[in-house]
Amino acid sequence: MKNIKTVYDHIKSNNIKTAVLVALFPIIFVGLVFLFTWAVVPLGDAIRTTTMVAIPTFVACMIWMLISWAFGDSMMLNMAGAKQINDTDPDYKYIYKSVENVALAAGLPTPRVYIINDTGMNAFATGRSPRDATVALTRGIIENLSPRELSGVIAHEMAHIGNRDIRLDMLVITGIGVTVFIADALIRMLAHTNSNRDEKNNSALVILAVWLAFTVFNVIITPVLRMAISRKREFAADATGAKITRDPRALADALRKISGNSHVEKLATQNAMSSVCIANPGRGRQFLSNIFATHPPVAERIKRLESM
Q1: Helix or strand or coil: residue 114?
Q2: Catalytic residue at 300?
Q3: Which of 58, 68, 172, 191 has the fewest C-beta atoms under 10 angstroms from its C-beta?
């Protein structure tokens, strides 16, 4: 007899996979710096250089993460042109109540609710913690989904809040930003290095090796890992959302409609926003394979939901 996976099995599996992917970021980064520097200097120097590069990079990531953590949610809402609503707003009172009911079912505080004036169907959640979280919905998703389907979407966003996916995404985006900045600083340093003497030639070679390590990490490793994490968190949020509503098919039906028109004008060019939305807000494009996609294929998400 075939083993049927429950919602809890899906959640546990995706959480384990996410933890492994997150752990790979620092491991691969340190490994790349070490290997590239070891190619141009002795082992002892390579170890010292790796330590001197890794520690300041991790410290810079932590500092920038705290800054982003303080202002990231307001920046995202401003980019989306979102407007806050409340339970007294006559046009959207039922929307606020839907969010309130789903939050109650999820055992979470009621988040702030924002509306994005766009006919595309999309949604995202943001905030530093469940106590100050926000759910943003487009006008298009409100107008085109049934109350049951809309509850499924809201539950998906509440799942992101409860699973602390906002914190995780902020950490990943921040880390990528810092390593890109350092790589740029290294190439500028290399351009100004006086290489007339052997000692300085050696220094330039080490800087070049470290820059190559950062470049490989930024251009190849981080996009693949970040998108993989994003896809796992989408699967986890789908499963957790289904657990909250006890109606997996509601979200599956909603995803069918959303996939037909998820484009949001103000978010289409904001790459950092793609992974936090329930569907890619840009024009869907596939290159080579799904490894660079921010979201799993809709058909796969629907298949998993309908199998629960």
Answers
A1: strand
A2: no
A3: 191
Residue 18 carries which side chain, given as an amino acid letter?
T
pTM over the 0.70 mark: yes
> How many domains is the chain partitioned into structurally?
1
Give CA–CA dist 52/71, Å, rounded.
30
The confidence score (pLDDT) of residue 1 equals: 45
Residue pointed to by tokens 């490894």: 291
- One-letter amino acid at 86 equals N
Q: Residue 89: inside a domain, yes or no?
A: yes
Domain membership of residue 285 as a residue range: 7-307
The first and second tokens of residue 27, run together, are: 């491991």
Q: What is the DSSP string of 77-99?
A: HHHHTEEEE-TT-TTTHHHHHHH
Say if CB 211 and CB 183 are below 8 A apart. Answer: yes
Residue 31 placed within a domain = yes
Share of the chain above pLDDT 70, in %: 83
- Let me know if residue 54 belongs to a domain: yes
Report yes or no on 2 lying in a domain.
no
Q: Collapse the DSSP code of 125 into the 3-class scheme (helix H, G, I; strand E, B; otherwise coil) and give the result.
A: strand
